[in-house]
Automatic annotation (TrEMBL):
Keywords assigned: ATP-binding, Cell membrane, Membrane, Nucleotide-binding, Sulfate transport, Translocase, Transport
Gene Ontology BP terms: quaternary ammonium group transport
Organism: Neorhizobium lilium
Domain ABC transporter span(s) in chain numbering: 3-237
Presence of keyword Transport: yes
Stated name of the protein: Sulfate/molybdate ABC transporter ATP-binding protein
The family this protein is said to belong to: Belongs to the ABC transporter superfamily.
Length: 345
């Protein structure tokens, strides 16, 4: 089922939690809503689910205007981080619950419910555990039961709010891979909320980066990491350095001095680059600073550098340097970005 979100606004009192949000989700896509706390991710997910309604704008499920339809009418499945299973019900009873409570006219026969539950157990790889109670399962198994329960009603779209948030890092990673495979097998349109960029970049077909109730960028992991469209996205995803620069007749000036890199345009801007996108340089027209710390990573090193700033606090920059490059604590170092982006103004 494809979903179209048109110019959604959501106010709580006078506070706009979402402000003119538009998004098209293709049928079968796996979409991550990524952003800092308070950016509006959960609000958007709840509006798609029908747990809340927009102040303005529409939500279409296919050609149907679902903006004011209830959760049941929309037929969505959702899983929340804290979405507790029913403790007094077995795994099988939990999964079958949504079917069992349907009105008699649409409720499947008992044997059919049993068949569907066993199919779902198989799908989430929990066959054999159907008689267990939630407190006899691991956290990861419980989340898989929650997913199976959401899937049981054959939802048109699956909505997950930080589904792995409460789990430890290792289980989280396993479930992440598992969810990707599960999605590829079942092909459900899926939207999940996360504030973990690694999770979003690894899992999603497209990542929706949100900030302050607005969508900043929508794109693949490569798009948002390699081609961030705004200063916010550049600094929110991955590591980066930001320096104020001036463009003058095709050259880039920092503190009035040329940097040995070129870019068309005139006037002030903010230059962003990533630690891995620099090279050490002996040239006079390069950035220069003092090494204040040096950390060894697996195959490389990170040098922390302070660039003097005319009596103000120095600019702090982190760059990746080759393992055997002569970089010494307290010494001066010269380097240049090899890839950068300048946002004008
Ligand atoms: P987190 O990652 O912390 O869950 P989020 O990106 O999901 O954050 P939302 O929960 O969507 O953010 O909240 C967006 C903004 O709307 C926040 O400033 C929040 O305080 C506000 N908000 C959310 N729900 C309500 C509500 N029911 N009443 C008033 N304000 C609300």
């Amino acid at each position: 089922m494809d979903v179209k979100i048109n110019n959604i606004r959501k106010e709580f009192g006078r506070f706009p939690a979402l402000n003119d949000v538009s998004l098209k989700i293709a049928s079968g896509e796996l979409i991550a809503l990524l952003g800092p706390s308070g950016s509006g991710k959960t609000t958007l997910l709840r509006l798609i689910a029908g747990l809340d309604f927009p102040t303005a704008g529409q939500i279409f499920f296919g050609d149907e205007d679902a903006s004011h339809h209830s959760v049941q009418e929309r037929n969505v499945g959702f899983v929340f981080q804290s979405y507790a299973l029913f403790r007094h019900m077995t795994v099988a009873e939990n999964i079958g619950f949504g079917l069992k409570v349907r009105p008699a006219s649409t409720r499947p026969a008992k044997a059919e419910i049993r068949r569907r539950v066993s199919e779902l157990l198989d799908m989430v790889q929990l066959s054999g555990l159907e008689k267990r109670y939630p407190n006899q399962l691991s956290g990861g198994q419980r989340q898989r039961v929650a997913l199976a329960r959401a899937m049981a009603i054959e939802p048109r779209i699956l909505l997950l709010d930080e589904p792995f948030g409460a789990l430890d890092a290792k289980v989280r990673k396993e479930l992440r891979r598992w969810l990707r495979e599960f999605h590829d097998r079942t092909g459900h349109t899926t939207v999940f909320v996360t504030h973990d960029q690694e999770e979003a970049l690894e899992l999603a077909d497209r990542v929706v980066v949100m900030s302050q109730g607005k969508i900043e960028q929508v794109g693949s992991a490569d798009d948002v990491y390699d081609r961030p469209s705004s200063p916010f996205v550049f600094s929110f995803i991955g590591e980066s350095t930001q320096l104020p620069v001036e463009l003058k007749s095709g050259t880039v000036l920092f503190q009035g001095e040329p940097l040995g890199i070129t870019e068309a345009g005139e006037g002030p801007g903010q230059m962003f680059f990533r630690p891995e996108d620099v090279e050490l340089s002996q040239a006079y027209d390069a950035l220069s600073g003092k090494v204040t710390a040096c950390r060894r990573l697996a195959g490389t090193r990170i040098a922390e550098i302070d660039i003097a700033n005319h009596g103000h606090a120095p600019y702090h920059v982190e760059i990746e340097v080759p393992l055997h490059a002569p970089v010494e604590l307290g010494s001066d170092i010269r380097f240049r970005p090899t890839r950068w982006k300048i946002f004008r103004g």
